[in-house]
Amino acid sequence: MSYWEYPQYISVAQKQAKAEKKLKQLQKKMPDIRPVRLTGTMLARSWWAKTWNKNLERYADYHNRIGRGRSYLRHGAVLDLRITAGTVSALVMGSAANPYKVEIQIKPLSRTQWQAIKQQCEGHLKSLQDLLAGKFPKTLGEIFFDPDQGLFPTPKGIRFTCSCPDSASMCKHVAATLYGIGARFDEDPSLFFTLRGVKSEDLVGEAIRDTTEALLTKTRRKSAKVLDEADLGDLFGIDMESLPDFSAPPGKSAKGKKALQPKAPVTNAPAAPKKPSSARPTPTPPPGKQQPPSLLSATDQVAALIPTGDNGIGIAELVAQTGYTKGKIYGIVHRLKQAGIIINAAHGRYVKK
Question: Who's near 341: CB < 8 A, 6+ residues apart?
């Protein structure tokens, strides 16, 4: 074979310059273009990115071919990469004058598989921040990385196409895009859950709900009392409003002792003349007339928003209408349920009893 039949050698610096030049051209037509840029020489830094790459490399079919895309990613050939539910689209610079179009389809997690994972996360996740940062017990990481029932896709769940003329089942441009997905997870780990078609909040929300229910059940067995407000505050890291005892007479606590009344502030103003003993007390508002929202406690505000109809109201709606965090709303709702004020209308929806 003669010398001129071999492809011309192109250095890494030349490839980088070519990709950068094309990127600048595309930015004029596509202002929102998002190239993949690595920080340093590492392909991945976060737990989600590293585990994504590790998952691809553990399969023999991928292990022998995916390495072809590492150098492409490192010299900036992935000019654009976008992740949506179940789909990744990318523009990758190759030997041609224009970048190749790559599309990768990822099969979403099945509902059964997602439910099983949520149950296994019970009591293990403390916050969404810890989940996305990869700060969770090793056993939970093993559950996520399980090859059969975990969160990461198998080769059977991945389909890809590329506009290049390469006849290989996985070309360099697809391989670079697969590694580019991991680099995107370094920027925003929540994109992993977007790609898999599930919500990361579900894992933390289920863990909080399940843990709270377990604690309340345990408390009822011991003393038949509602979980103490301080315990819920410690559990969620929030301040909980006290639920008034409607069974106690005015001015007295549940144990029959006189309730403490706040002392009036000390001022230098002359004392107001005493009213005759026969003066009538200030009448209370008629039933059904609500206090101004600024005077209502968090518990009262939530209780006032819960309807008596059949459909009820959900946690997300209560969060939107009150501005409180989801964790605080869960705590208040559980206390209202234990007090017998509200009941479940359906899964995740509540009505007044």
Answer: 303, 352, 353
